[in-house]
Amino acid sequence: MSKKRIIVSAIIFAVLIAGLLVGIFLTNNPNQVQEESIQEVMKDAVLHEHVKVSLFGLKDVNPALISAFITTGIILLFSIIVRIFVIPRFKLIPGKFQIILESAVGLFDGTSKTNSPHKYKLLRVYMFVAGTYIAVSTIFELLGVQVMATNGRPITLSAPLADINGAIMLGVTTYLFILFNGLFVSGPRGFFGTLKDFSLPISMSLRLFGALLSGALVTELVYYYKLTSFVIPVFVAIAFTLMHAIIQAYVLTMLLSIFYGEATEEHEKKEKKEKKSKKIKNNNQESLSSEV
Questions:
Q1: Tally: H helices and E strands in the chain
Q2: pLDDT of 228-274, one tens digit each?
Q3: Residues near 130 by Cβ (< 8 Å), separated by ≥ 6?
């Protein structure tokens, strides 16, 4: 890099820092009292006791439920559009969007085949749906969708899984998926084998909730204080959100495929035993026929 570019970059950086400092000092009023304490802000971010949203005037619910409805609608609408207008136009030489879509499908397909090679068709579908929902619902909070709370103040909707109820629902649903597929594929052994891992839905739920909540709390903390409420929250929110979207989608789908493979592995062993017994039986029959 030339000296001229270095000098220009340094000047731009200095101007940005100067503007940031000016904005902080001009808006910072030491005598101003916050309407809510930082403890109350953190508590509301976790429990949603005071900040509620009206659901069509029927019931006051947590904002995360509205986020879940909107996220689900976005995913369904996008899926319908892609299925009707995009997939029929796929070409032998793929374009950029086709490559991205096929790569995503191939990733989940390969992971399901690796961890459950004998029974993976339903697994790869659920992995794709769960991974997509986690990623999209986490990135959703970057949109900054605002709604009016029941207390008359506008609030920004958070990620659905930042609410403990949403995280528990996804964790329990994933566990039940593994449990009943273990029953259908491997019989009682697969069912009771998965039933022994009763801590699995708890660990999945708390892992999702803890990871996403940590990012939400850090962002709330940065926004709360005026000294850190300029520019910094943008980088903090984007970094935490994207990181959690990728990591949590990867972690949950990997755990799902591993435990699913363990729950259905008895089916594979049974098939091998049956093939082995048939082979021995055929060999015995051939030996008897040759002796006769």
A1: 9, 4
A2: 556 666 677 777 778 878 888 888 888 888 888 888 875 445 555 55
A3: 170, 174, 249, 252, 253, 256
Helix ranges, 28-95 (H): 38-47, 63-81
**Would residue 26 count as lying in a domain?**
no
Rounded Cα gap, residues 264 and 145, in angstroms:
42
Q: Is residue 146 helix, strand or coil?
A: strand
Q: How far apart are CA 219 and CA 185, in angstroms?
A: 45
Euclidean distance between CA atoms 26 and 22, whole angstroms: 6
Within-domain flag for 183: yes
Residue 46 belongs to a domain: no
The answer to whether 42 touches 219, Cβ cutoff 8 Å, is: no
Question: What pTM was computed for the model?
Answer: 0.73
Give the dihedral sign, CA 72/73/78/83.
positive
Q: Domain total for the chain?
A: 1
What's the domain range around 177?
Answer: 62-269
Per-residue pLDDT tens for 86-140? 889 888 888 888 898 888 888 888 888 888 877 888 898 999 999 999 999 888 8
CB-based contact 158:71 (threshold 8 Å): no
Does 119 map to a domain? yes
Q: Do 27 and 226 form a contact (C-beta atoms < 8 A)?
A: yes
What's the Rg (C-alpha) of the chain? 27
Distance CA 185, CA 176 (A): 14
Residue (of 169, 175, 181) closest to 208 by Cα position: 169
Instruction: Please count the other Cβ atoms lying within 10 Å of the Cβ belonging to residue 66.
Output: 18
